[in-house]
Design brief:
The structure is a homodimer. The first copy, chain A, is about 75% helix and about 0% strand. By secondary structure, chain A is mainly α. The first copy, chain A, folds into two domains: about 50 residues, Arc Repressor Mutant, subunit A (Orthogonal Bundle), CATH 1.10.10.60; about 120 residues, Tetracycline Repressor, domain 2. In chain A, helix 8 packs across helix 9. The interface between A and B is medium-sized, with 29 and 29 residues. The first copy, chain A, binds a DNA duplex through helix 1, helix 2 and helix 3.
Chain lengths: ~180, ~180
DNA sequence: AACGATACGGAGACAGTCTCCGTTTAGCAA
DNA sequence: TTGCTAAACGGAGACTGTCTCCGTATCGTT
């Protein structure tokens, strides 16, 4: 990539991250272009649609996912605590900006989504926790990772759209945890 | 209301119901106006925004909610079956058109929403089922109706956005049911 | 310095929302 | 019937956001 192109690319991603956080995932792309000091054409050449831009924005996020999972797995305490703690982290990870939880959760299991690799990372992270609990014999039979992602993603989506705080979310995560554990 | 106004009102609601079902909740309102044979001005005078139109569309739906609940409460079988069966009905009720589950669930507990009365009806319906189970001593402590609505609404939202079929939804409803029951 | 490939950016087509206001019509009263 | 007025209509158009096309500018190489 030419140096100026690279500069613009980076600038757009940086600005997009900021604007998505401020205004949510449905912010105007033309405005992002303007704030980044480029024309809309430039933005759309680098990112043919909103999702590819989101994908780029999430690039750095991938690291944080694995770090968070590592930490969650070292959790001292009961399996239930570990699971609920992980769910809270999970919700936090996908709730970076308004509209994020819905976007990410619905992309989960869709092989054509531009953010599929990011979803894969998240699914793998969740899988590590689930498999750890399964190995402990803590889970009921028939629990599938994708279902867990959807259940927790669904809660995060509702919380996002109803602007619920952590205190309102936790009891719902507990219900799901109790429904998954023996 | 003047006769012609009433006629247009009814026509718009009828067409909107049809178009929402066909194209989802984000269909073009100008198109609904066109199909109803009125100008956009007429539509927006009757319905200042999308939500008030949705509210009108849902008017007839209210009857169905209570009927469905009555039937669900007569369910023969275990508490678990009754609950899961109700959840499936609940999901069906709020999944009339694409975008519906998210809209309804996020309006739940928002006293300013134009569809608040409709949400109230739904919340009451859910409450009847929950209280019946609570009376049986079947529920864990601390279960709140609004949480149940949000949990099941979250599942319906994800199912809606990921276009999941009933078979994929049921196991998730089972998890929630198991998390709520003793 | 010159040149070709690469990238830029803004004008503008298009779609959707929503309003304003000149025109039409319903319904009533004489 | 006719005339009148309040009520309702409807479409032109302002505004916002998406996305493309293509003339212009810039990079980096020779």
């Amino acid at each position: 990539m030419r140096a100026d192109a690279q500069r613009n690319y980076d600038r757009i991603v940086e600005v997009a991250r900021e604007v998505f956080r401020e205004q949510g995932y449905d912010a105007s792309l033309d405005e992002i272009a303007k704030r980044a000091g480029v024309g809309p054409g430039t933005l759309y050449r680098h990112f043919p649609n909103r999702e590819t831009l989101l994908d780029a924005v999430m690039q750095s996020w991938v690291l944080r996912v694995t770090e968070t999972t590592d930490k969650a797995l070292t959790h001292e305490g009961s399996d239930r605590d570990l699971l609920i703690n992980w769910f809270e982290e999970y919700v936090g990870l996908i709730s970076q900006h308004r509209g994020g939880p819905a976007k990410i959760t619905s992309a989960m299991g869709n092989p054509d989504s531009p953010i599929r690799t990011k979803c894969g990372v998240l699914a793998d992270a969740n899988d590590r926790v689930i498999e750890r609990l399964r190995a402990d014999g803590a889970l009921r039979d028939g629990v599938e990772t994708i279902q867990v992602c959807r259940l927790v993603g669904g809660i995060a989506t509702v919380a996002d759209q109803s602007e619920l705080d952590v205190a309102a979310v936790r009891p719902m995560l507990e219900v799901v945890a109790d429904g998954l554990l023996r």
